[in-house]
Amino acid sequence: MPKGKGNEIAKNRRASHDYFIEDTYEAGIVLQGTEIKSIRAGRVNIKDSHARIDRGEVKLINLHIATYEQGNRYNHDPTRTRKLLLHRKEIDKLIGLTQQQGYALVPLKIYIKNGVAKVLLGLGKGKKKYDKREDLKRKQMKRDVDRAIKDNMR
Prior knowledge:
Elements: E1 7-11, H1 14-18, E2 19-29, H2 35-40, E3 44-45, E4 50-54, E5 57-61, E6 64-65, E7 82-85, H3 88-98, E8 103-113, E9 116-126, H4 129-153
Antiparallel strand pairs: 1-8, 2-7, 2-9, 3-6, 4-5, 5-7, 8-9
């Protein structure tokens, strides 16, 4: 199955608005206890999360996985830092790329692939305010063109 394909659980729509996504990486997530059950139930929020490289490991920070209702004392901390599983060559490449000014690792989506939770990381360069306005103008123009074509077809 290609990278990024699978049963999509959560998607970060703000990422493409705030960053130019230049490259994507698929990573596994180290989970504990009842976290996978909450992910399968769709109780995950990746809107404010980001990834950081710390001592040769990629960590996902501020990912919110809600506590599992049927779990008792084995429940987890919802916003704990989670380790991501990548190949060493990919981590070394990311270390070099993220040290450049303006680049960040942004989670794009979380999905289940072959029974395993995965996260699609994007290497993003931050957009300026004028870039964001330009994108909004382009989207609006495309919407207007599509609407006009649809009206002409009737």
